[in-house]
């Protein structure tokens, strides 16, 4: 699913709330698989989307722990969740390396910018499936043997992408908190 055209002055959480994806996520209508154990004979865990701290946590939207006074396991969880988020960041890196319109502010009317964005997403998905030459490894984040991340070249561009503002509401439901804590326990048990 892709959506484009929301005013950039609203928060990420407010953007997702007005999208078809956001509506389906809130209504549990995304047709996600039933929760499954991550490890043999383990607790059943819901399928989740990873997000950054600009979003609110829900049962199916996992975000990092906030604040300065995090314990070791919370910091480890945040690190590993950040590593998982690199998949979507790399997708944008690939998209922007192939469609140069995303390397600077888009100089189109809002409706045309939205159409261009959605068309680029469709083309990106098509080319990822059909073309072996589409992916340029220098456009994505790479991890070396020492586990250091080397950013993709899209991050080095003159015009950087600005994060949308963070929504002030941070009310985490009990179920969402338990899901995040369960994933933290799982991430911290892995070596």
UniProtKB/TrEMBL annotation:
One of its GO terms (molecular function) is metal ion binding. Keywords: Metal-binding. Residues 3-125 form the DDE Tnp4 domain. It comes from the Eukaryota. Its cofactor is a divalent metal cation. Pfam families: DDE_Tnp_4. The keyword Metal-binding applies. This is DDE Tnp4 domain-containing protein. It comes from Elysia crispata (lettuce slug).
